[in-house]
Amino acid sequence: MHAKEPAIDWHTQDFQEFVPQNFESQQMVDPNVGYDPFSTPTNISSMAGPSHQPPTINPYAQDASATYFQNANAFQNPAYHLYWPVGPQPSGLLAYQRTAHDFFIPDALREELQKKAEIARQVAPNSTLPAIEQFHSLFCLDISPQKNTAPFGYASWIYKAVSSKDGKTYALRRLENFRLTSETAIRSAQPWKRVLNGNVVTIHEAFTTRAFGDSSLILVTDYHPNSKSLADEHFKPAQRFHGRQPTSSHVPEQVLWGYTVQIASALKAIHGSGLAARLITPSKILLTSKNRIRLNACSIMDIVQFDNARPVSELQADDFIQLGRLILCIANNNPTAHLQMQKSIDYITRSYTARLKECVQWLLNPQPSSGSPSSPTSPVPMQKDIDTFLAGIADQFASVFDSELHAQDTLIVNLGRELESSRLVRLLIKLSMINERPELDASQNMPGNAGASSSTVWAETGERYYLKLFRDYVFHQVDQNGHPVTDLAHVLDCLNKLDAGTDEKIPLISRDEQNVLIVSYREVKRALESAFQDL
Predict the structure, then answer these.
(1) Does 154 count as an annotated binding residue?
(2) Same domain, 463 and 361
(3) Where does residue 125 fall: left (phi above 0), alpha (psi -120 to 50 degrees), or beta otherwise?
(4) Is position 227 annotated in a ligand binding site?
(5) How far apart are the first and last CA of the chain?
(6) What is the mean pLDDT of residues 288-311?
(7) pLDDT at 423
(8) Is 229 annotated in some ligand binding site?
(9) Residue 442 resides in a domain
(10) Which terminus of the chain, N or C, has fewer Cβ atoms within 10 Å?
(11) What's the CATH number where 477 sits?
C-alpha cells in the first residue's frame, strides 16, 4: 500500500477563506430600520450617492447586531409606570420606623408630575412651523390631522409655544383663513383678560398673523400639559382587551356634581363680567387633573361672530342650556344624548337621584314657567340667572369644596415630605466636593510642593481623614462575603444623623482594615463644615 498523492487541482491555497460578503445585504437589511447611531458604525462614504456600494456587514461581529435587530431602548421615553410598586404595609413597624416609600412622594403623583414636565418640554425636530411674534418652538398638539370646522366655522389648530419675553410656555389656538373685518372684533377679547377663575383657561392676547401663509387668528392662552378634553375622557373609552368592543363605564354622580359646580363657578366669573361662555361642549372643556376641569376656547365666538352679535342676556341663558346638555350627555355616555331628550332623562331617572334630574331639567328649560320652580330646591318661580342656580346647588358646593380641601391637605403633606430633601442633597454635594481632591490628597503632593502643608490634615493621621472613611461607611459597605450592600435605609439614616449632628458614635474602618476610628456624627459634621469652608 502506498499513499495516494493528492490531485494537483485540490490544493487548499487555491480557495479563499470564508469571509461574510454582502450577497443579500440589500434584501436582508434596510438601512432605515434598526439603525442605532450609538452602536452602529456609520460609513460616511456610503451616503455620498446611490452609485457607491453599500458597506460590508458582518453578521458575526459584535457591533452588527444593532443593524439586524432594533434596539428596544433607543429613543424611548422613561417608563415611569414600571417603578417598583409599594408592597403591603408592614404591621410590625415601630413608631419611629419607616419604609423606603415613606421618604418620597406617592408614585401616582410623581408619575403625573413627571409626565407633565416631559410633555411641556417636547419639541419637534426639524420643525417647519414658523415663529409668531415673540413665540417660538411651536409644537402641534392636535391628535388628528383632519380639519374640523364644526365648533368655530373655521379650521382650528392648537400649538404649544414658548414666549421669548418671559420664557413661559403658552397654548396658541389658530383659526385658519380667518379674515378680520373690523379692528373692534379683535378688541372683544380684551375683557376676557380680566376673567381670572380657576375653572377658566386664562386668555392673554389675540392677534392676526400671516406667518402660516394665510390670514390666521391666534388666541394665546395658558398651557396645561398632559390635559385632555371631556370628550376624550368619557366618549372615547379605552379598549381593555384585544379583539373586544370597548365599553363605557358608569359615571358616578359625585363626578357629575363636581363638573356642575366647577362650571357654575366659571359662569359666575364670566357672567359677572358681562360676558357669556357660549361654548360649553365636551370637546372644549379641558380635564387638567383628576376631576379638575377648565373652560377652554372662550372669547373665540365673540370674535368670529362679532358682526352677528346677540344680546348678552340671551347668550347667558344659552349657557345654562349648554351646561344641561353637557351633564345629560356625560351621564348617558353618549355625545348625542340631547337629541333624544326623553330617553336620556329616563336613563338619569333610573341611574341617578331625583336631585340631579331636577337640576338637569332646570338647566334645559329655556325660561321658567309660572307653574314650575325656577330653582331645583325652591318651589317659588324666580329669575333664571347664575345666582339662582348657585343658591340651588349650595349643598353640592360645600361637598366639592370639602373634597378640594382634603386634596389640598394631601398635596401639602407630600410637599412637606419633599421640603427638606435638599438637606441630603447639600450633604452629598459637600462630601463630593471635599473627598478625592487631587490638590488636597497627601499622596499626590511631592515634598517640595507648596500644597503639602495644607494636605497634611488629609493624611491618615490628619483630623479630616475620617471624612473619607465616613464616605466609605455610608456608600461602600459590603457583606460578609465581600459583596456590595445597596441599602437605601442605611444611607438615609446616616445622612439624616449627620445633618442633625447627633452624639451617636460609629466605627470608621480604613480600607486596609488596620485602623479603626470611633467618632460621633457631631464630630463628622464639624469636620465637614470646616473642610467645606476651607475650599
Answers:
(1) no
(2) no
(3) beta
(4) yes
(5) 91
(6) 91
(7) 85
(8) yes
(9) yes
(10) N
(11) 1.10.287.3700
Residue 228 sits in the same domain as residue 140: yes
Phi, psi of 31 (to 5 degrees): -65, -15
The one-letter amino acid code at 314 reads: E
Read off the C-alpha cell for 220.
394665546
Whether 38 and 157 map to the same domain: the answer is no
Is residue 257 in a domain?
yes
In a domain, residue 182? The reply is yes
Mean pLDDT over all residues of the chain?
80
Residue 225 counted as an annotated binding residue? yes
pLDDT in tens, 479-497: 888 888 888 889 989 998 9
Backbone angle region of 299, left / alpha / beta, with phi > 0 → left and psi within -120 to 50 → alpha? left
Whether residue 417 is annotated as binding a ligand: the answer is no
Say if residue 136 carries a ligand binding annotation.
Answer: no
In a shared domain, residues 272 and 201:
yes
- Range from 48-52, 89-93, 103-107, 426-430 carrying the lowest mean pLDDT: 48-52
CATH number at residue 217: 1.10.510.10
Q: Is 284 annotated as a binding residue?
A: yes
DSSP 422-455: HHHHHHHHHHHHHTT-GGG-GGGS-TT-GGGTTT
Q: How many domains does the chain have?
A: 3
pTM beyond 0.85, yes or no: no
Task: Classify residue 511 as left (phi > 0), alpha (psi -120 to 50) or beta.
Answer: alpha
228 is in an annotated binding site: yes
pLDDT tens, residue by residue, 415-461: 887 877 788 888 999 888 888 777 665 544 445 444 445 556 655 55
In a domain, 378, yes or no: yes
- Determine if residue 435 is labeled as part of a ligand binding site: no
b/e sequence 481-490, b meaning 16+ C-beta within 10 Å: eeeeeeeeee
What average pLDDT score do residues 44-48 get?
Answer: 44
Residue range of the domain that includes 281: 120-237+253-407
